[in-house]
Amino acid sequence: MEIEVIENKNNKLRFIVRGSNFTFVNALRRTIISEVPTLAIEDIILVENTSPVLDEIVAHRLGLVPLTTPPDEFTVASECDNCGGEGCQFCSVPLTLEAEAGDNETKMVLTKDLESNDDKIKPVSDKIPIAKLGAGQKITLEAIAMMGRGKQHAKWSPAVTCSYRYYPLVQQDSSKCTNCMECVDACPLNILQVNKKVVKLTDPLACLLCDLCTHACSYDSLKMSQVEGDYIFLLETTGVMTPIVAFKKATEILKSKAKDFENEYKVALESFLKRKK
Ligand code: SF4
Ligand code: SF4
Ligand SMILES: [Zn+2]
């Protein structure tokens, strides 16, 4: 298997996987979405809320705030041996929020108002609105961010987009081509060229494999297909960690699951063979 990175900026990673298969690539995608752990607010103690926003809505909004998560520093709360999921220094971080509008003003409470005990754990953006306070209104709360996985709740997933596409392949019978250019005109992305009856993709990474060009060809000359085993993978994170870190973590998790499976299989096989004797 080969990997070629074609883009890595602004929490967006795009790479081509060559010589693999869709079961593996899909397992990687699912592991990133649902298994790579991150921190997210799980518990709220609302000391005071005189804003027009209901307590539940404040709690819901805070739960969805992406928080920077240093890799390998915290244990997943539900798997924490120290507290059994209640929350402790190994699996959670406390945050506080105190905001008040003056007597003659309104105030937008933003994620920058959330204060953490740990400098490494903070909202990915300072500008996410939580509630708008009217004159003299106030919100005071304590929040507990816990380590969790996307399979428990989407708020713990590090991924905004995590998907793969087949790598496109032009299959053409040039002897049937009439140079009519219908395929070129049909492509919504304008990424086809015909030169001396040979069709070429000018930007294979953009091709959606939508088949509009194939259908536009009345001469049965053109067919869009895919390169077997090659995929274009796109991973964009919320900013809680970089895509490279999320990708690395997912491969570690997959590896350890494969090892667990192997060990369990060996035990099961041995016990089966013993029973047969
Ligand atoms: S499959 Fe769709 S996107 Fe790709 S070249 Fe043909 S028309 Fe364009
Ligand atoms: S539509 Fe078919 S015949 Fe016309 S240029 Fe494209 S491949 Fe050739
Ligand atoms: Zn704990």
Describe the structure.
The chain is an alpha+beta fold. It has two domains: 2-34 and 165-236, 2-Layer Sandwich (Gyrase A, domain 2), CATH 3.30.1360; 38-156, Beta Complex (RNA Polymerase Alpha Subunit, Chain A, domain 2), CATH 2.170.120.12. Helices cover 24% and strands 35% of the residues. The protein contains five helices and twelve strands. A four-stranded antiparallel beta sheet has the order 1-2-12-9. α1 packs across α5. It is flat and about 80 Å long. The model has no long low-confidence stretch (mean pLDDT 96). Zinc ion is lined by residues 77, 80, 82-83, 87-88, 90-91.
Q: What does the overall shape look like? A: flat
**H/E topology pattern:** EEHEHEEEEEEHEEHEH
Average pLDDT for all residues: 96
Ligand list:
iron/sulfur cluster, zinc ion
Integer count of domains = 2
CATH fold-level name of the largest domain: RNA Polymerase Alpha Subunit, Chain A, domain 2
**Largest beta sheet: what is the strand line-up?**
1-2-12-9
Structural class: alpha+beta
Percentage of residues in DSSP E strands: 35-45%
Radius of gyration: 26 Å
Total beta-strand segments: 12
Head-to-tail CA distance between termini: 42 Å
